[in-house]
Specification:
2 domains; alpha+beta; OB fold (Dihydrolipoamide Acetyltransferase, E2P); 20 strands; 24% helix; 8 helices; transport; Rossmann fold; binds adenosine-5'-triphosphate; five-stranded mixed beta barrel
Length: 357
């Protein structure tokens, strides 16, 4: 089965003094019917990649295929691809229904077909009640839904979404995240979604490509990206991470035996043939606070910070570094350590990940 999108050695340099290499050399495959997210900090090349797929920009070199056929000679309007922009770009003096039908009208679709598709799309985004309202008279979340319906109406094979939720407030954003995922599942259209918000990426995506400096650092399912970050950049960019020095002294497939600076031994996941001195990544919620004697690491408790849903413990390890643990709060959860206590930090075999660099 051909992939929805296949990019090989895709490179984009914007001319100028000096020129900007926005995409270094990207290899990427996006499956049909996938909710695929491009995640990375500002300026890493996410929008550039979307613009190449949409056809608004031409690559400097490399290949770009959709369902096994090159996209490079096809102008944007001939690609069965639609884009939802951050600012929605709705026509304020047109009604909800007119906005949704606009693309179809431009394509010369017969009136009856437009009417039935518009009705179907309004149903899909739950805007049927507001069909005759002007889009200048509806809320931000409703505008977002209309923009989505308008982009979905011509039934593109791929929908590109460039930070479509960033103008919405926190609550509405959460709601729209779920709605977008539902829309993708219901329509079966491949969604390529751009965001710099890691939580948004983790909650909605089938797979995520983490980008930095024009390169793809890791592609994987949200859980893989979170639990098994490939390198320090990914571990640092997504969630909070503790980094620990360790030495690999044995290996059984993807499981490495490591010695910690304390002399204690632990097993961790290692993707590649890393050897010798390495860095381990460990999530704060994957570690437990213990007595000094029971811990794999030892130190003093520096801070206890209450966050409502959980409590963060900052431990000053004996090697001078800081380790953060996170423990979920509950009506029966209590801890007996106070700032200044000697404590241990422990974590189960398999909880930590050996990083690539
Ligand atoms: N038209 C252009 N001309 C020159 N440089 C550009 C142009 N568009 C983007 N760039 C540069 O290319 C790099 C990648 O930009 P891009 O917009 O793809 O990043 P992004 O990850 O989408 O960032 P953001 O999250 O801020 O939108 C940046 O360094 C940017 O300044």
């Amino acid at each position: 089965m051909a992939k929805a999108i296949t990019a090989r050695a895709l490179r984009k340099v914007y001319p100028g003094h000096p020129p900007v290499e926005a995409l270094a050399s990207i290899d990427l495959e996006i499956q049909d019917n996938e909710f695929f997210t491009l995640l990375g900090p500002s300026g890493c090349g996410k929008t550039t990649l979307l613009r190449l797929i949409a056809g608004f920009e031409h690559p400097t070199s490399g290949s770009l295929e959709m369902f096994g056929e090159s996209l490079l000679d096809s102008p944007p309007y001939k690609r069965p691809i639609n884009t939802v922009f951050q600012n929605y770009a709705l026509f304020p003096h047109m009604t909800v229904a007119e906005n949704i039908g606009f693309g179809l009208q431009m394509l010369g679709t017969p009136k009856a077909a437009i009417r039935s598709t518009v009705a179907e799309m309004m149903e899909l985004v739950q805007m049927t009640q507001m069909a005759d309202r002007q889009t200048s008279q509806i809320s931000g979340g409703q505008q977002q839904r209309v923009a989505l319906a308008r982009a979905l109406a011509p039934r593109p094979k791929i929908l590109l979404l460039d930070e479509p939720l960033s103008a919405l407030d926190f609550k509405l954003r959460k709601k729209m995240q779920l709605e977008l995922k539902r829309l993708q599942t219901e329509t079966g259209i491949t969604f390529i979604f751009v965001t710099h918000d890691q939580e948004e990426a983790l909650t909605m995506s089938d797979r995520i490509a983490v980008m930095s400096n024009g390169a793809v650092r890791q592609v994987g399912r949200p859980r893989e990206i979170y639990d098994r970050p490939a390198d320090r950049f990914v571990a640092d960019f997504i969630g909070d991470t503790n980094f620990l020095p360790a030495k690999i002294i044995g290996r059984d497939g993807e499981t490495a035996q490591l010695r910690l600076p304390s002399g204690k031994m632990v097993q961790a996941h290692a993707n590649e043939a890393s050897a010798g001195q390495v860095t381990l990544a460990l999530r704060p919620e994957h570690a437990q606070l213990t007595s000094e004697a029971e811990g794999l690491l030892a130190g003093s408790l520096r801070d206890v910070v209450y966050f409502g849903t959980d409590t963060h413990f900052h431990v000053g390890l004996d090697d001078g570094s800081e380790f953060v643990l996170r423990q979920q709060n509950g009506p029966t959860v209590a801890h007996s350590y106070v700032t200044g206590d000697r404590v241990g930090v422990s974590f189960p075999d398999g909880a930590a990940q050996v990083l690539r660099d």
